[in-house]
Amino acid sequence: MKKLLLPLIAIAFTFSAANAQEKWSLEKCINYAKEHNIDLQLRKLDAEVQANNTTQSKFDLLPSLNGSTSYNFSYGRTLRADNTYGDINTQSGSLGLSAGVTLFNGFQKYNSIKQNELDLKASLQDVEKAKEDLALNITSSYLNILFNKELLQVAEEKLKVTKLQIKRTEALVEAGTLPKGTLMEQNAQAAREELEVVNSLNNLDLALLDLAQLLDLENPSDFDISIPELPVLNATRSMVDPESVFINALEFRPEMKAARYRLESSEKGLYIAKGQRAPSLSMSGYWGSSYSKDFPEYGLDANGAPVIVREEMKLSDQLSNRENKAFGFNLNIPIFNGGQVNRNIANAKINIDRNKLYMENSKNALRKEIQQAHANARAAMNKYFSSETAVSSTEEAFRYTEEKFNLGLVNSVDYNQEKNNLFQAKSNLLQAKYEYIFRTKILDFYNGIEIKL
């Protein structure tokens, strides 16, 4: 039994450890955020409320049907059936059904349905906009982690080079080729570079924490991301003209769709306001009956005079005999309502103008964002390829300086300066690379291309 149990425990432990160290891809981060982000959930709830409003406006076309019932107790002096007063305790009740339906009201209900449908479409586009903004923020944080991971590798590589050089310097100092002060300077440089490694590691931890908090993870301590295959960066990539991106974005960007839906909704609001000038026609009906404990049943005596046959008429007979029915039409013609209808129409026109300006402002903002994204992407591309050239030339300079240092022709200060220049150039290249990737992703985002790595 123990022989069987131990392997099972080991497998379970391995499986648990693997799950704890599971690395998140960009796609997984985005999908998780779409399901758990609270701000996005609030947007979805707003859309659900609007969906309920739309459904209700459709149900408003149906007739209304309401039931009512009451039961009362009364005490005190009252007039008896024999036309005398006395103390009587009585009980009575009633029940009824009422129904009504609007036959015509200037198409206000019809236009309300259309308006609510347009408002619902706008709310759904707000949800899509929130999803895209969230995906963009996650992509930025994700790329920042990748940048800090590579920056840590550069710092570790720099320290590794220094430690190798320390070993060579120790041999040269022992041989008397270099003074002991050179070795001390190299050790001090290694200490500074170890601090750079620690700082890079801290920056990486902070970048991971930023993304974990953006995802609202409860325990970010084990959080890590997978390293994707990054897109190939080359100078032959042609960037789409920003104006063509803008024209394309006008059709599919959710904020533009939402603006169009809200403009159309305000136009329906004008029709609703104008509908208040039209007469409204409604139909209603009622059925009801009542019961009283002191309601007697009368009959005729031998002389044909009315006499009380029973002190209390049976419930079924009372409901039947005291039944009341009504049916009718109601025509309401607006003549003067303190100018309220005219003000509603004027405000509806203002709302249309406001939404036209809002839509125009959204267009201008979108055009500026695309122009800025295009300019940033082009600048990032130029910066990346310039940084590549700088790294290449700095590597050559460092190799030359390193050879001279090993021969004792260059002091440690100049050597360390050249090495710092090399790794600073590599850091600049990393920064330029991830900025270039992110800027091109933003441009693709405005061009309708899904964000992926």
TrEMBL record:
Cleaved signal peptide residues: 1-20
Domain of life from the UniProt record: Bacteria
Sorted UniProt keywords: Cell outer membrane, Coiled coil, Membrane, Signal, Transmembrane, Transmembrane beta strand, Transport
Ranges annotated as spanning the membrane: none
Main location: membrane
Localization, UniProt: Cell outer membrane
Record InterPro entries: OMP_efflux (IPR003423), TolC-like (IPR051906)
Pfam families with a match to the protein in the record: OEP
Coiled-coil stretches noted in the UniProt entry, renumbered to this chain: 113-172
Stored PANTHER family: OUTER MEMBRANE PROTEIN TOLC (PTHR30026)
Similarity section: Belongs to the outer membrane factor (OMF) (TC 1.B.17) family.
Protein name: TolC family protein
Organism: Marinifilum caeruleilacunae
Organism taxonomic ancestry: Bacteria, Pseudomonadati, Bacteroidota, Bacteroidia, Marinilabiliales
